[in-house]
Amino acid sequence: MTTDTSGLSQLGAQTHQPTDPDSAHLERVPNPHADTLYVARFSAPEFTSLCPVTGQPDFAHLVIDYVPGDWLVESKSLKLYLTSFRNHGAFHEDCTVAIGKRLVALLDPTWLRIGGYWYPRGGIPIDVFWQTGGVPEGVWLPEQGVAGYRGRG
């Protein structure tokens, strides 16, 4: 089965890095297995944003799991969207939940969760978790696989 990519503006093309999340263009492609419940996972172990108060960088390991409906997120556009946060000032909670909500608005998935495992600043790690509801019955959902922060090793 071939997927029609004619409507995509970024895949296979030279693109510029969006300067902020609002100007980033997320794209989607048809799900060739829309009749099957399965989990797709994206991990972004080097996610970066800025503290909105100090302007200092914040770092996180994001894990996005979703059960697609009719649509899949196009991975290059997701990468560009996530990197658009590098110069964006927002709190950890805002970044994590906003990413999840934007993906839900684009994809209308059967289910989605995002885990934001933020590295400590000021001695306190802030981990943020959001999901759209209960996991669909019969879906195999592995743990996100990110170790909790251990400050004393």
From TrEMBL:
Pathway: tRNA modification; tRNA-queuosine biosynthesis. Its main location: cytoplasm. The keyword Cytoplasm applies. The active site is at C51 (thioimide intermediate), D58 (proton donor). It is an enzyme of class 1 (oxidoreductase). Catalyzes the NADPH-dependent reduction of 7-cyano-7-deazaguanine (preQ0) to 7-aminomethyl-7-deazaguanine (preQ1). HAMAP family: QueF_type1 (MF_00818). This is NADPH-dependent 7-cyano-7-deazaguanine reductase. It comes from Brevundimonas halotolerans.
